[in-house]
Structure formats: C-alpha cells, structure tokens
Design a protein that fits this description.
mainly alpha, Growth Hormone, Chain: A, 75% helix
Length: 495
Amino acid sequence: MTNPASSTDSSDPIKNPSPPAPSKAALGIIFLTVVIDLLGFGIVLPLLARYAEYFGLSGPMLGLLLASFSAMQFLFAPLWGRLSDRIGRRPVLLIGLAGSTFFYSLFGYATSLGTEGTLLGLSAIPWLFIGRIGAGIAGATIATSQAYIADVTSSKDRGKGMALVGAAFGIGFTFGPLLGTALVSDTPDNPTALLQPAWAEKFALTEVQRSAFQKRIEDYNQTRLRDDLPYAERRALKRGRDTDLLALLDDSQRKSFREASAPAASPGYLAGILSGVALLLACLKLPESLRPGTVRSHGDFSLAALRQALSRPGIVHLLGASFLTTFAFAQFESMLSLLTDALGMGDRENYLVFAYIGFILTLAQGLLVRRLLPRFGEYRMGLAGTILMAIGLVGIALCGQMDSRGLLYAVLPIVVIGFSCLTPSLQSLLSRMSGADEQGGILGLGQSVSALARILGPGIGATLYDVNVLAPFWFAAVLMLFGIAVVALLPRNAS
C-alpha cells in the first residue's frame, strides 16, 4: 500500500474510483479483528525464547526460530497484497486469521509434547518451527488490513485510519502479556528461586537445604556473567547447578517443582482461540472493501527504488538509521526474556515486563510523541530518540551486570520512549525527502529495510547470546552510537 499521492492517474474514474465515504462500522470491525489477532501475538512472543531454550535450541537455532516469523512476513506481505487486489481484501484476511488460529494452536500443542513427546514422528522442535513459520505467513496479512483501511477512508482521513493499526499493536502488546499472566505458573524456571522465602516455604525447604542452596548458588554466581565464558560452558555450568540443586530436594519436592516449572501449552491455545474469535467476527461482520476496477500500486522492494534511493545521500542516511535502530531494538526485544530469566524472573513476571513495555509504548506513541513531534520537528526528535535508545541499552546491559531487577524497570522506559520518538520521525523524514511520484517506491524500500533488520536482529542477538548473556545488549548499544552519528549527519532543515 502506498501514499495516496503515488496512485495512478486519478483522471480515470474506472481505474481509480473515488474512495467511499469513511465507514465507522467497517473501521470498527477491522480494528477489533486486528486487535484480537494481535492479542494472540502478544501472548506468544514473551515466552518464545524461553520455550526454545527449554527444548535445548542452540543460539543460532534460536535465532532462526525468532527470525522465521519476520522472514515470512517479509516474503508474504507483498504476495498477500497482490492477491487481495485480485480476489478482494476479505478473503485474504479470512485466510490469514484461519492460519493464525491453526498455527498458534499448533504452537501450544508442540509445547505440550515436552522434551520427549512426538507428533507424526517429529519432536517438539520441528513443530515449533512449523508453527512459527506458519504464524508468520498468516500474520503477513496485517498489510492487507492497512489496504482495507485505505479502501474505506478518504485521503483526508487516511492518517487517522492508519493510526488504528498502530493502536491495535499497542493494545495487543500490552494486554496480550497481561492475559498471559493468568495462563502460566509464577514458579520460576530454575530452582535457584527456591531460596526466596516464599518459594522456600511453598516447597517446604529445610534449613539444611536452604544453606546448601545458598552455597551452590554463590559458587555459580561467581562465574555466570563472565565475559569470557563461552555459551557451551555457561550452559553446562547452569545445567550442573540445576542438577545439584534438584538433587538437594526430596522426591516429592523435585516432582512438584518439575511439574510447576514446565512450559505451559495454554498460551498457544489461547492465542489460537483469540484468532478464531477474530475469524468468526470477520466471517459474520466484515464486508468486502475493494471496489471493482480499483488499482493500487504497491510499495514493494525493487531494484529501481533501490537505485533511486542510493543516488540521494539524505535518503541513504535515513535508510541506514532505520536499519541500525530497528536492528538494535529487534535484538533487545527478542533477547529480553532470556535476560529476565537470568535475573531469576518466572514466566509470570516476564509477562509483566512485556506488558510494562507495551503500556509505555502506547503512552509514548499516543501522548508524548504526538505532542512533541510538531513542536520540535523530526530531526530533533529522531536524534533524541537515538540518544535515548543508546543510553537505555547500556542501562539494560548494566542491569544484568549488577543483577538488578529494579534497574531494569527503571531503564526500560528510556529504550521504549527513544524508539517511539525515533520511528515516526524517520518515517516522516523519509516521506518528506521523497517526491510525490516516488512515495510508494521509497517508503516501500524503507519498509523492506526495516523488515530485513527485524529478521537479522534476533538471529545475530541469539548468536551473541552464545558468547555471553549480555553481549546482545552491549552490541545493540554500540549500534546505536553509530545510529546517533548517522542521524546527526542528516540535514538539519530536513523537517
């Protein structure tokens, strides 16, 4: 989908009929449909890396699993868009929702297999990949939802309509994790937390057991965050610690802990149910939006757009800044649940961390950025955003170094607000630096660059995690230093 300015010649009423009057009912239905579907996404995302680690995926394999969703969206979003131009938006959206229903449910079932179960001769790991790839293909219809909004809004109301998708993401990322807290045990994933008074009492640890736990954990903590500790050695060290701690429990305590700390299948099932509800709503209430004879150009990646962009330094800087910042944020977001695990947070508290991020993101985009952007302009807001992200990512790395949960909650808003300031500023600058006849190509190239960053970020982050648990966050902070330099090189009068 492109900016209205990039549409074909509007003098032809057959190819380009004027948009229908905005339909509040249609907008409301598409908004609810997207919100319900994204709630499922918000439920699964915070647990994905933790579940993968539980099933024994190495860093590169974890990176592939995390990147597979974005990779499928990158490949299939333009395909769904072209198909929706031929057969209509409604059928494509229904196919996507049906796919989300099936593949999220498959993710839940794969989780329930545990480390020893199989389905059709395959263990849980291949099914986790199949579920994630399928969910990425189905979720690529978000762009079709945006095309639907473009169909039912006038040029004047197009921006407000598109803002609904952003609001839907905010709601999904905030309330999806909150729903997830009701589905998982608050029992931590590793036995170190049994030393905490509440857990020690719940599992009836004796004083002798507590003393032995304390000594073993102190021995482990002396080396667990060493910068030179390879992933394989760190993983073996962690396994040895957990084995030793579990050996200190009696049979009843050990059985109770393993049952309580096993990955829950219910988040995947609930995500599937929510997508099923969205599918039912769309089947019953969502009308077709595409009018016969309508032709829309697509902002897909193309060599022509690439050559055009590379010939202009300002756009090159913007695309570079967009790639670096999106790459760094994707790395931070995908590795965060592993950092919270290292800090001893269980699945429930991990969900609350992601809900906290979603809440801050919603407030920052809905209140802060909307008020400050017109006042300070895109250049200043973009530069401030890169600086805040760099500071915040350094703070995230220090949280792990200092083993501080409190510091984590304090610095997360810095990263999120920085990203909230940066993203719309770069998008607006890219649009302003593009001519009316090239909006679609240049903005489509910008979307492709961001999608590529979302694919590579988790993969590189998981590989760095093999080196050290904090390496992804330090690397992301270094990237943001380059991001600051790139944004600073933009023309000050660009906005």
